[in-house]
Design a protein that fits this description.
Length: about 250
C-alpha cells in the first residue's frame, strides 16, 4: 500500500483531472466527426448545389466590366493639383465629356465610372474609366483627358498639362473570374452543409444510447430491445419453421 504526502496528493489530483479533461476532449472531437460522417451527404449535396448556382450566376448573370486608363503630366503645385483632382469628377466638368461623346448617361452617373489621381505622388495623373463596353471605356478616358487639358487651361491657366499616354481598349474584363467564384461557392456550400448537419443533430430528440436513457430517466437500464426489420422477422420465422419440421421429423423417426 502506497502513502502520499499532501503535495503528492495534490499533484495526483491535478494529473487525474488533466487525464479526464483530455479524454473528454478526445471523445467530443470524435463525436463531432461522427455527427458529420453520419450526414456527410448533406455537405456534398449543398456544396454541389452552391457550386452550380455560383457557376450559373458567374457565367450568365454577371455583366463584364472593362477598365481603360489614360495618363497626363500635370506640372502644378500640390494645392492646385488637389483642386484639379476634385474638378475632374464634378458633373459640371463631365457635362463637356457627355456632350462631346453624345453619351446616353448623365454627368452624375459618369462621375461614378471615373477615378483620377496622381501616381505615387508624382506629376503623372491617371484617369481610369470603367464601363461594360471596352471601346467606350477607352473613348471616355481619352476624351476626359483632352477636355481636362483644355478646360484647366481656360479656367485655372494651367498651361503645363500634356497627354502622356492614351487609353487603349482592354479586351479582358476586370470582374470575371469563374474559377474563383465557383470555388468560393463550393466552400460556402461546405460551411452551410456543416451548419445544417449540426442543426439537424440538435433538433434530433432520439435516444440512441443507454447512457442518454439513464441520464434522462435517472434510472439504470436493465436491458434493451434491438430494432426489428421485415428481413429479421422473416428470417426468424423461417428459422422456426425449419426447427419445427426438424423436430417433427425426429419425432416420426
Amino acid at each position: 500500500m502506497y502513502t502520499f504526502s499532501k503535495g503528492n496528493e495534490t499533484k495526483l489530483i491535478l494529473i487525474r483531472r488533466k487525464v479526464v479533461f483530455n479524454l473528454e476532449k478526445e471523445i467530443n472531437i470524435k463525436k463531432l466527426f461522427g455527427i458529420i460522417r453520419k450526414r456527410f451527404w448533406v455537405m456534398i449535396v449543398l456544396s454541389v448545389l452552391f457550386a452550380s448556382f455560383g457557376s450559373i450566376y458567374s457565367i450568365y448573370f454577371t455583366k463584364p466590366l472593362y477598365e481603360s486608363s489614360s495618363r497626363m503630366i500635370v506640372n502644378v503645385d500640390d494645392k492646385l493639383m488637389n483642386t484639379l483632382m476634385v474638378v475632374i469628377k464634378e458633373p459640371s466638368f463631365l457635362n463637356h465629356v457627355v456632350k462631346e461623346l453624345d453619351l446616353n448617361s448623365t454627368p452624375e452617373a459618369l462621375s461614378q465610372q471615373i477615378s483620377a489621381g496622381s501616381i505615387g505622388g508624382s506629376s503623372i495623373v491617371k484617369i481610369s474609366v470603367i464601363d461594360t463596353n471596352p471601346e467606350l471605356a477607352a473613348n471616355i478616358a481619352n476624351t476626359t483627358a483632352n477636355v481636362f487639358k483644355r478646360e484647366m487651361q481656360n479656367t485655372f491657366g494651367a498651361n503645363d498639362i500634356n497627354i502622356y499616354s492614351k487609353a487603349e481598349i482592354q479586351p479582358n474584363p476586370i470582374n470575371i473570374n469563374h474559377d474563383n467564384k465557383i470555388t468560393l461557392s463550393f466552400i460556402i456550400g461546405l460551411i452551410a452543409g456543416a451548419g445544417l448537419i449540426f442543426l439537424l443533430e440538435f433538433l434530433d430528440n432520439t435516444i440512441r444510447t443507454e447512457y442518454f436513457a439513464e441520464q434522462l430517466l435517472e434510472v439504470p437500464v436493465l436491458g434493451s430491445v434491438s430494432k426489428m426489420s421485415k428481413n429479421n422477422i422473416s428470417q426468424k420465422r423461417n428459422k422456426r419453421k425449419i426447427e419445427v419440421r426438424r423436430h417433427s421429423f425426429e419425432t416420426n423417426e
